[in-house]
Amino acid sequence: MSAHASPLLAQAIAPDQGSLSAAQISEVVAGCLPVEAYRGRKVLLIIPDGTRTAPVGTLFKAVHSRIGHVAGSIDIMIALGTHQPMSEEAICNRLEISMEQRRSTYAAVRFYNHEWDNPQALQVVGTLTAEDVEKISGGRFSMEVPVEINKRVFEYDELLIIGPVFPHEVVGF
Fold first, then answer.
1. Parallel, antiparallel, or unpaired: how do β-strands 42-48 and 73-79 relate?
2. 67-115 pLDDT, tens digit each
3. First-last CA distance in the chain
4. What is the 3-state composition of the chain as percent helix, strand, coil, each rounded to the nearest 5?
5. Do 95 and 130 touch, CB atoms closer than 8 A?
6. CA atoms within a 13 Å half-sphere pointing along the CA-CB vector of 19
7. Residues 144, 127 contacting (CB under 8 angstroms)
8. 23-42 pLDDT tens trace
9. Other beta carbons less than 10 A from residue 34's beta carbon
10. How far apart are CA 66 and CA 90, in angstroms?
11. DSSP E strands, the chain
């Protein structure tokens, strides 16, 4: 990951009782992703599984259209939390692409499910102290808690979180 990267939150507000069009979403993506900044970069898109609602497919297609032709790679990781892994077909449905598009336009995109239950797939990045846990839990617990994330993220130059992906007791990213 880039040592100088800073978190960026991109958002747009839809009109009352409405939603953003694909063109409006592409405009937001274009404003956030300068093409030259992604030339040759390995990019991992972290997306929610099917239990979260968001225009994930529209966002994925906008990102891929914007930087797919210059990035070294663009891959997908499903942030599962503790949910079951998604099949390739289910991921395609989540991304709103057909299997034909998967084999053509998006053939180079690799799909990964977060392996929350595989210790070999995780890396400890820190520890919550017993004091921190006691404070956070209002005194209900007092123990050290290791913070682990999927070690695959360290293979990428850039991580882009698409949609509602939240840390859990088991982090999905």
1. parallel
2. 999 999 999 999 877 678 999 999 999 999 999 999 999 999 999 999 9
3. 14
4. 30, 20, 50
5. no
6. 7
7. yes
8. 988 998 998 999 999 999 99
9. 11
10. 24
11. 42-48, 73-79, 111-113, 122-128, 145-150, 158-161
Query: What is the rounded CA–CA span in Å between residue 137 and residue 133?
Result: 6
CA–CA gap between residue 72 and residue 40 (Å, rounded): 4
137-148 per-position pLDDT tens digit: 899 989 998 988
In the structure, what pLDDT confidence band is assigned to residue 53 with cuts at 50, 70 and 90? confident
Cα–Cα distance measured from residue 71 to residue 81, given in angstroms and rounded to the nearest whole number = 28
In degrees, rounded to 5, the angle at the alpha carbon of residue 49 between the alpha carbons of residues 141 and 73 is: 110
Instruction: Give, in order, the Cα–Cα distances in Å from 112 to each of 21, 58, 70, 92, 150.
Output: 28, 19, 21, 12, 11
* DSSP single-letter state for residue 48: E
Q: Which two tokens stand for residue 73?
A: 């790679």
